[in-house]
Amino acid sequence: MPRGTENPKKFIISCRVDHKEMRRLQEIASEQAMSITALVRKSLNLSDDFRRRQVS
Description:
3 helices, mainly alpha
């Protein structure tokens, strides 16, 4: 049975990156101890934590 979540994602956005860009994304994500997805959300100010801070 699949696990439930409070905030299911309904959309997928994809983009193409070359090998150099992917390596850099992996390096930064590793340095920040986060996933590439979380890194992209953070860079776009889309993370839940960022939104919570804006509302407060």
